[in-house]
Amino acid sequence: MNSLKVARMALRAAARSHPVQRRGYADVAPDKLRLSLALPHQTIYKSQDVVQVNIAAESGEMGILAQHVPSIEQLKPGLVEVIEETGGNKQFFLSGGFATVQPGSVLSINAVEGYPLEDFSAENVRNQITEAQKIAAGSGSEQDKAEANIELEVLESLQAALK
Predict the structure, then answer these.
(1) Which of 82, 105, 111, 145 lies 20 to 30 Å from 136 when distance is taken between CA atoms?
(2) Which ranges carry the ATP synthase F1 complex delta/epsilon subunit N-terminal domain (predicted)?
(3) Which residues contact 157 (CB under 8 A, 6 or more apart)?
(4) Does 132 lie in the same domain as 107?
(5) CA 5, 8, 14 angle in degrees (round to 5)?
């Protein structure tokens, strides 16, 4: 029996034993989203109930509410906005990472670096962009140019988030 037939049989068996719950686009879920946002050195949110989280995924900008379809998203450098139960929101700039939406309205975000957006100065970011552009266009080594291009990508995302 070839592997395709085995996969089809397993899929049919799984469909019978686990009914699929359907949800329409942009349905508003009455319950909350349980958020964990962790960095290697700090946990910013630990299983805290929030209303919505907006992320910058490689596949595009996403707003995640309770009962979101399970998925794993690679994050690009960008803004993560957390809308809390109190009605306030907090914004963080993450260097990248992964967001995992699990059944039961659970969202886990893991990133290497992340800081509150208010910790950044638009002027300092502009100055760093100018320096990175000089290095990227200069006559340095290929490694220096590659590092400068990565730095530019992150700084330009940060600059866009600060506007």
Answers:
(1) 111
(2) 33-106
(3) 56, 76, 77, 78, 79, 93
(4) no
(5) 140
What confidence tier does 38 reach under pLDDT thresholds 50, 70, 90? very high
Tell me the per-residue pLDDT of 101-111, one tens digit each, with 9 for 90 and over.
999 999 999 99
Say what the pLDDT of residue 81 is. Answer: 96
Q: Report pTM.
A: 0.73
Nearest to 65 by CA among 108, 113, 102, 32: 32
Same domain, yes or no, for 41 and 91? yes
CATH classification at residue 38:
2.60.15.10
Domain that includes residue 89, residue range? 33-118
State the virtual CA torsion across 65, 35, 116, 55 in degrees, nearest 10.
Answer: -40
Rounded Cα distance, 74 and 82, in Å: 18
Q: 100 and 46, same structural domain?
A: yes
CB neighbour list of residue 89: distance below 8 Å, 6 or more residues apart: 81, 82, 83
The overall longest dimension of the chain from CA atoms, in Å, is: 64
- Phi, psi of 28, rounded to the nearest 5 degrees: -90, 120
